Amino acid sequence: MRQALALLYPDSEIASADARDDRKGVDLWVIKPSGARVGAQVKARRTSFWGDVFLEVYSDAAKGVPGWISKLEAELLLVVYRDVVLVFHLPTLAYLTRMNLEKWLSKGYGHRTRSEKRPGQVYESFGVFVPLQELGPALLLNVPKLRTGDAA
Fold first, then answer.
1. Cα–Cα distance between 132 and 113 in angstroms, integer?
2. pTM, whole model, 2 decimals?
3. Distance, CA of 42 to CA of 109 (rounded, Å)
4. Quick one: 33 exposed, middle or buried, by C-beta within 10 A (0-12, 13-18, 19+)?
């Protein structure tokens, strides 16, 4: 994952975000030689890549709490699968979601997931599984993993 960022930002430092930034949706910072910072959000998936990407529209559907696709503190989104790392430009991905959500829902891409944050605290999130080819304008990098936990 850090190596994928290094391909996009050579000669830059990759640093973990602090807890405050993490709550805002930034997991890593790319610190350019100029000192400018680029935020990156990381979503780890326990599966191999099957051709579509999950975009969380509501983190708590019942309460209408916006999902991470609406949190634009980060500029990059890294989706880490078992076999590939996808790097997206998050503002472009959010724009594509706003422009295409109704169409994607009509195609049956919508998906609800139930999660338990704490024992007894169950909530349902809502998002869409979108084929990668429909997200092309936002895709910056597609890097196969060379070995577990390490991307080229």
1. 20
2. 0.86
3. 22
4. exposed
pLDDT tens digits, one per residue of 33-59: 999 999 999 999 989 999 999 999 998
Q: How far apart are CA 2 and CA 15, in angstroms?
A: 9
What is the rounded distance in angstroms from the CA atom of residue 110 to the CA atom of residue 120?
25
User: Parallel, antiparallel, or unpaired for β 84-89 and 110-118?
Assistant: unpaired
pLDDT in tens, 50-105: 999 999 999 889 898 899 888 778 999 999 999 999 999 999 999 999 999 999 99
Q: Please give the distance of CA 141 from its chain centroid, rounded to a whole number.
A: 13
Domain locations in the chain?
2-151
Q: Within 13 Å, how many C-alpha atoms sit on residue 61's CB side?
A: 15
Going by C-alpha positions, the residue among 52, 51, 94, 87 that lies closest to residue 72 is 94
Query: Phi-psi region for residue 73, left (φ > 0), alpha (ψ -120 to 50) or beta?
Result: alpha
CB distance 71 to 36 below 8 Å:
no
In angstroms, rounded to a whole number, what is the distance separating the alpha carbons of residues 12 and 123? 39
